[in-house]
Amino acid sequence: MKWHLRGGRVLDPEAGLDARADLWIAEGRIVAVGSPPADFTPDRTLSLDGLLVLPGLVDLSARLREPGLEHKATIASELPAAAGGGITTLVCPPDTLPVVDSPAQIEHIQRNAAAVAGPRVEVLAALTPGLRGEGLSEMAALRAAGCIGLSNGLRPLANTLILRRALEYADTVGLAVHLHPTDPHLSAGGCAHEGAVATRLGLPGIPPAAETAALAQILALVEQTGARVHLCRLSTERGVRLVAQARRDGLPVTADVAMHQLLLTEADLEGFDTHCHVLPPLRTERDRRALVEAVATGEIQAICSDHQPHDADAKNAPFPQTEPGASALDTLLALGLQLAARGELELDTVVARLTTGPARVLGIERGTLQVGHPADLCVVDLHRVWTVAPETLRSQGKNTPFLGRRMQGAVVHTWVDGRLVHSLETGD
Amino acid sequence: MTPSHTPTPTSALQLTDSGRLRHFLTIEGLPRTVLEQILDTAESFASLGGPAVKKVPLLRGKTIVNLFFEASTRTRTTFELAAKRLSADVLNLNVGAAATVKGETLLDTLRNLEAMHTDMFVVRHADSGAAHFIARHAAPHVRVINAGDGRHAHPTQAMLDMFTIRREKGDFGRLCVAIVGDILHSRVARSQIQALRTLGAGCIRVVAPRTLLPAEVASLGVEAHVDLDEGLRDADVVIMLRLQRERMSGAFLPSEHEYFQQFGLTEARLRRARPDVIVMHPGPINRGVEIDSRVADGGRSVILRQVTYGIAVRMAVMSLALGPDAPGGAA
């Protein structure tokens, strides 16, 4: 279908564009921005006066829970939620049941995703079989099946020799490795930032050193092997500094942060709010500010949702017994807009870290609205106000720390490869 | 079964709109007046008819369930005695931890017991926040008393310790209190510190090797010491904590022997404290590990008096939360 999107404010950080402009889409691609293409007859024209047009969001980590954990969420439940949040590419980690460690698993996910109107799904396959950390996955076969990278999920490798070999072999087949910098021993049994709040509430702590010790180890191995590594979910000020230094030293590393880490701190655990049980844990205000600053400077290239939908029972227990993670697809963009509205980040920075930043991490030609690029985009009404509640969340997972919070800004339309996959308005 | 969207702040959960005790989950956030009311009420029970507290009909017709997910003898027994002396019906339930690894089972247990018209749960659980969880999910008329949750809180133990200190020492303002031992894992220490602060203790010290001190311990409002002699200097009250055997295997300490050498309370070391010092211990004591028998059984020890006072203090807490004057608790 050919589209003419008229009169919106187009914000494309990669193109350096923030202006009222028309957009023309044909055959799944952007064919013109600003001035109309020759001989173009649109099938549909949409008037976007007063609305914001953004490149589609690229989310580096969203769990779809399929296969095996369908009581938490399914591909069919989560992709519409992602589209409703303006996400046009999402990356799912391999920690499903069974683990994504074979081509068949990748094909299964891709087949089910293709049947649902929503974002493109990229799969991270298991770095080690069963995520056990004991040997190497058949990485060449996984690559051939279409995975975009490798990950060991939330299970850090305890054995540095296996990690070294895994990095070398991944580099051999040309796949990036996404690693969570968490020392398995220093974090064992912990469920909250080791600090004043955990001390008072008596919650077993996870010290910042669990992150920095793992980072130092990973960075040493990147220096040794030259392998391409993406560092997932930074949470500490010291961790941010280590990664920034490594990048200045020329190491091929990138990093992301979960959106909730930019808004919440250990103080939000007060009253044992199990929705704030996330890993890595919510840390101090000083850490939060350092993460926001790193997003501003680009030392952190991407903000992700770190979407982890759960069934109600998973959060309905004493805090340490609950499963970590928050449902986050529905709120990703709105929370980013909140950071901009508060003046903590510039709007174009927020958009860049949600679009072109993660696209570059993945090495895909997405996250921008320049002519010739795939037509992945969303339209945002900055004046639309909504409240986070089970009934307003499209995700099957209702486990968000932001329940009851008022959000300003909602996605009105989302296109993936030129196909409208989400729209709040029917007809035109 | 649906959890509330935003957890109620602890203070709102524990007190009724008129500021009366509803649940007793933690000392934190409770005003001094409420703590003093507990102590005064306990005093009235303790002075009833000499050494043995007589039975009073305050909670006649009420059903109290002792819901213990973690083993306990002393605490459960004193809660049971306290409930019986208030004329309540008591049911003891020792639920193995294995049967309740999942939250849904805990909620199911709760619903089943509520269906038996329970008026109060006395809860002990290995996880921090368990009592909050139960209070938040219990029916509106049900009261919850925390009998120890993970490392978080053990408020009735702290109140019986405060009761002991007040009886032995009077005013808190002049007192220097040293708490010695495994502060990191101790719910008792956390509740004691909060109670001492609320009641205005002059100085609160914690004494332990760094492996057994929690992160940012000073944020609790205490002075931290890693040297026992310094920590004991001129103390009016010394509270020894029980050392769990598993701390050796967890690499917190090299050995019981070395711990006793460095942090064990002996008569010689106790001389650093004031001559009229009292020595307390929440029990059960490990003789020769954290405390020498001569101190535990000596003239400065009030350890057995703590146990006796425990009944009066628990009667006070139960009657305040559920008694005739309590909202929703009218006979």
How would you characterize this protein structure?
The complex is a heterodimer of chains A (about 425) and B (about 325). In chain A, helix 1 (about 75-85) links the parallel strand 6 and strand 7. Chain A has helices spanning about 75-85, 105-115, 140-145, 160-175, 195-200, 210-225, 235-250, 285-295, 310-315, 330-340, 345-355, 355-360, and strands spanning about 5-10, 15-25, 30-35, 45, 50-55, 55-60, 85-90, 120-125, 150, 175-180, 190-195, 205, 230, 255-260, 300-305, 375-385, 405-415, 420-425. Helices cover about 30% and strands about 25% of the residues of chain A. In chain A, helix 4 packs across helix 6 (about 210-225), helix 6 runs parallel beside helix 7 and helix 10 (about 330-340) runs antiparallel to helix 11 (about 345-355). The radius of gyration of chain A is 21 Å and the shape is globular. By secondary structure, chain A is α/β, with parallel strands linked by helices. Chain A has one domain (about 55-360): TIM Barrel. In chain B, strand 1, helix 3 and strand 2 (about 90-95) form a beta-alpha-beta unit. Chain B is globular, with a radius of gyration of 20 Å. Chain B starts with 9 loop residues before the first helix and ends in a 9-residue tail after the last helix. The model of chain B is unreliable at about 1-5 and about 325-330 (pLDDT under 50). The interface of A and B includes residues 200, 201, 271, 320 and 403 of A.
Structural class of chain B: alpha/beta
Please outline the major beta sheet of chain B: 5 strands, parallel
H/E element order of chain B: HHEHEHEHEHEHEEHEHHHEHH
Strand order of the largest sheet of chain B: 7-6-5-8-9
CATH topological fold name of chain A: TIM Barrel
Radius of gyration of chain B: 20 Å
What general form of chain B does the structure show?
globular
Helix content of chain A: 25-40%
What global shape of chain A is seen? globular
Counted up, domains of chain B total: 2
> Which CATH class of the largest domain in chain B?
Alpha Beta
- Quote the distance from N terminus to C terminus of chain B: 29 Å
- Specify the helix fraction band of chain B: 25-40%
- The total of beta strands of chain A comes to 18
The assigned CATH architecture of chain A is Alpha-Beta Barrel
Mean pLDDT of chain B: 90
The CATH class label of chain A is Alpha Beta
* CATH homologous superfamily identity of chain A: Metal-dependent hydrolases
Report the structural category of chain A.
alpha/beta
